[in-house]
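Tutorial, part two.
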Amino acid sequence: MNSIAVVNFAPKKGSVEIRDIKKPAIGDDEILLQVANVGVCGSDLHQWTADHSWPVNYPVVLGHEFGGHIVELGKGVKNWKEGDAVVSETAAVINAQSPLSRQGLYNLDPERKGFGYGVNGAMTKFVKVPARCLHSIPENLSFEQACLTEPCSVAYNAVVVNSKIQPGDRVIVLGPGTIGILCAAIAQLCGAQVALVGLKKDAERLSAAKQYSCDIIMDDATEWALERDGLGVDCVIDAAGVSETLNLALKWVRPNGHITKVGWGPRPFNHSLDPLVQKNVTLQGSFSHNWPIWEKVLSLLASGRLDVRPIIGGIWPLEQWNEAFEAMHSGKVVKSILKPN
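Running the prediction step on this input gives:
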């Protein structure tokens, strides 16, 4: 049985198209998932525009933010059954015996390969998934919301695990894309005072972010950063897709403050890091997520304390992937979602 899929087939800009692919054959420890919804990530756009900075196994089916129903189980799969509604983590391939994986940090395993660049992803009807990646979707959570567990987990890792935000902290988030807005929302849940900073071209996405009750700033956040005592903010979370914004983070963070960089950007920084030294600032990278983060995020989504509905800009059939990509790329919407079936 063949299905259509959104395939990134070469490193050249625009090398994405609809192709027919075979139904995947699963191994003993895998399940076959019929995809209900799949979110479009900024990384999908970067592969489409060929300005990404990670290796891709061409040709590859895009899509790593997804949920659906189990339709087939491998011989070794336990504790799951056909028909279960699940979401999947992104670490499709790991070395389970690596020191990092054995610590539960398989997201940092050097041998890790993710859906949508390392192996075929979910912008198609069926995707094969290791059973270890699965999480049950709470009954009161729609697939449209559940498929965004992945970016919520990226944000949770950046804000809670790697930034250790405390109540009363003043936090600036750079970049009003999906991850930036979700970082702002989660920092609010931690009790921080939060400002989300973008550019004039980000006006529509910033407007969507207002529903999370953070302060919205275009361009220059200096006044907000210095408002409390003139020294800067406790933490800057840099979710912009460029390296250049780190210079703004260094400007606005207070001495002995913290910067977490979660946005990817292949271009060189081209600035001195002397302010990092002079201000005694901690610079922290944040990548991906792991099992306990997913469980906590699903709990937050199910409770309604974390609501992703304000950032969903539309749901498109798989055949209209280009329209969905363009809507996000142009900044008209924060998050596009595809529906394969």
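Residues 149-161 form the longest helix (13 residues). In part three we will examine how such features are distributed along the chain.
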